[in-house]
Amino acid sequence: MIQQRGNFDWMLQDLAKGVPGIEMIVVLSADGLRIARHGGDPDTADRVAAACAGLQSLAGAVAQEIPGSDGKMKMVLIEIHGGYFYLMAAGPNAYLAVLSDIITEPGHMSARMSDLVVRIGAHLTSPPRRNGQTV
User: Fold this and answer.
1) Which domain of life is it from (predicted)?
2) Is residue 133 part of a domain?
3) Which domain holds residue 55?
4) Does residue 50 carry a pLDDT above 90?
5) Which of 40, 50, 97, 112 could be bridged to 24 by S-S, CB 3.0 to 4.6 A?
C-alpha cells in the first residue's frame, strides 16, 4: 500500500492510523514529482502530485497579495463534495497532500499534518532540480 523513496512508511502510516477517513497521502516535490504515497494507486498519486505543484504555485501568488505575508504557502484546504483535500508545506521544496472522506474533521487533520511536518520535516525535503537533474 505504500510506495516510497526512502523510509517514509512509518511516517505516513502514523498519520493514516491517527485520523479516520484518509483515502490517500502523497509526499511530493515542489515540481510535482511524487516522493511517497500511502493508499490509492501510483497513477492517481502521480496525478495528485502534479496538480499540487500548480496549486502551491497559485497559493503562493495569492499569498504575495496579502499585506504582511512572506508570500509562502503554508496550507491549502479545499472542501469537495464527498471529502477534503489538504496541501501543506513540509520542508524546503516538499509538500504533504492528503485526500480524505467527509467524516474527517478538518481541524484535527490539519493539526495532525502539522505535527507530522514538525516531527519529520527534514526527511520531507526535496533537493531542487534543473532540467530533471538534482542540483
Assistant:
1) Bacteria
2) no
3) 2-102+114-127
4) yes
5) 40
| Of residues 83, 80, 73, the one with CA closest to residue 52 | 73
Number of domains in the chain: 1
Cell representation of residue 71:
508570500
Residue 109 included in any domain: no
Burial of 53 (0-12, 13-18, 19+ CB in 10 A): middle
For the stretch 39-46, contacts whose Cβ atoms lie closer than 8 Å and that sit 24 or more positions apart, written own/partner, are 39/1, 40/99, 42/3, 45/3
Please say whether the beta carbons of 25 and 98 come within 8 A: yes
75-120 pLDDT tens trace: 999 999 999 999 999 888 889 999 999 999 999 999 999 998 887 6
Confirm if 25 and 37 have CB atoms less than 8 A apart: yes
Measuring CA to CA, which residue among 24, 30, 4, 43 is closest to residue 97? 24
13 in Cβ contact with 2 (< 8 Å): yes
pTM of structure: 0.84
- 78 assigned to some structural domain: yes
